[in-house]
Amino acid sequence: MKPKFWFVIAGMTAFLALLIAMVTIFSTGTGPRAYVAKNYTRAVQLDKPGDDDNKAYTSNLEPSTVVDDITDTWEPISQYARGSGVYLRYSDDAMIVQPRDRGSVIHVMELDEAYNHYHHVVGGVWGWGGPHGQTFRGGGPGSGK
């Protein structure tokens, strides 16, 4: 057989492998939202009302263990722990991991909706307006204007 034939076969095989990889990547999703959806149990009855993008998940693990699992895989921009739960901020999403019965509930929501809902907890920690939550301009009288 001619070498040209083998190049054509190799090119078709490479294209097929690339196509399979792309379908796999885009069908399973990436990011912290997809990770939680894949690894935790969906709990529609625990979704926060009024936010169609909010999804609740449950786990039999303690909140600290769930947070460690999520943050080991997807490092948040900001993480804040309080008695009511652990608040994880990502670029587009937020995750709130709270104790529930003998386990945890994980609320995954868009960042702005999470901020609106939990501003009384994370308002001074996450800030608002900058990519990493820095809204303090500092300085003395007249600075930052």
TrEMBL record:
Species lineage: Bacteria, Bacillati, Actinomycetota, Actinomycetes, Actinopolysporales
A family per Pfam: DUF4247
Entry's transmembrane regions: 6-26
Keywords, in A-Z order: Membrane, Transmembrane, Transmembrane helix
Protein name as annotated: DUF4247 domain-containing protein
Keyword Transmembrane: yes
